[in-house]
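Retro notes (design track)

What went well: tokenization of the new backbones is finally stable.
What didn't: we kept losing track of which sequence belonged to which structure.
Fix going forward: every design gets posted as structure first, then sequence, in one message. First example under the new rule, 107 residues:
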């Protein structure tokens, strides 16, 4: 495992333990790398894969709500952010953001 992977694994572990700053840093470190992967998948994704299926499904879902023909780079960024949010929710123990927020509010 290289240093970058070690850092990501440490951040993910801290995020799972509830460290919000670690979750934010994990998002920041992954967003550009994930955009590259999404862009490549949307451009060249001929071979089926679970990641590719998820990228294309998310892109189709987001494109339905576009006012006109989607700007390809904007679509790439939005798909990457959606996937990143899903990934980081998993790192935070699998609870959706809305539930994590509710847990901090006294009723």
């Amino acid at each position: 495992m290289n240093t970058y992977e070690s850092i990501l694994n440490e951040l993910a572990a801290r995020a799972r333990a509830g460290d919000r700053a670690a979750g934010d840093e994990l998002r920041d470190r992954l967003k550009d790398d994930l955009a590259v992967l999404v862009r490549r998948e949307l451009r060249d994704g001929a071979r089926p894969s679970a990641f590719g299926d998820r990228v294309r499904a998310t892109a189709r879902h987001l494109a339905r709500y576009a006012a006109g023909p989607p700007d390809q780079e904007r679509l790439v960024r939005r798909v990457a952010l959606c996937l990143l949010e899903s990934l980081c929710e998993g790192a935070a123990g699998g609870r959706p953001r809305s539930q994590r927020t509710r847990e901090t509010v006294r009723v």
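Added context from the reviewer: DSSP finds five helices and no strands in the chain.
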